[in-house]
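Before the break, one more example. Copy the sequence into your notebook; we will annotate it together after we see the structure.
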Amino acid sequence: MPINPTPQTPLSQLPNFDARAVPVVGTDAHLPAVPREALTPAALRRRFADPPAWEPEVRAEPKFSDRQPTRAAVLVPVVTRQRPMVLLTERATHLSTHSGQVAFPGGKCDDTDVDDPDTALREAHEEIGLARELAEVIGTLPTYTTGTRFIITPVVALVRPDYQMTLSTSEVADAFEVPLDFLMNPAHHRRHAMELAGGRREWFSMPYMDGNTERFVWGATAGMLRNLYRFLAA
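Here is what the structure looks like once it is written out:
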């Protein structure tokens, strides 16, 4: 069945849509990067233990669906290497939502989950085999609501560098690490915009070259990372 685009159409449902091809309307090189000394495990623990006054920049995407809102949580895993890294996944291409996109491990909350960190840790174990005892939860960020009506709580955790992964191939095609200081430098935060059926759609991307492979971080994942930047830079 052909799709008749509206401003509320999920971008992933547009025929031949490629987020990389959408024009970049600006970057934020005028904003300061978070200093590397503020990205150490000890500094991150202190910041979440005693948070500053701040406001998230991106709270919600345009609504794409009339489905009932669903609570979800993702793990923002900061691997405690000498240069801290963020562990990300590439979603399997057959999934019904956000297929093929870079994402944090996570998913919807189950009735048996104790809280949002419990959801995030359970999902991370199911998706990439991350053992709970290797992840130290240090805090959460404000919710981010996707256009598909998932109300997501990002759960930030410090992950030991000796972790092992076993990917659930039904959900995850790949997993990789991106330097935290790269993601917390707004010079790498690109702003994209396009007109769709008379409406304007905007989002961030943070493309990272992993050797010869481009890891194109965009959409909800980039939006949550932008909020983490605002939190750490406040």
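The first helix runs from residue 41 to 49. The chain has a mean pLDDT of 89. Try to locate both features in your own notes.
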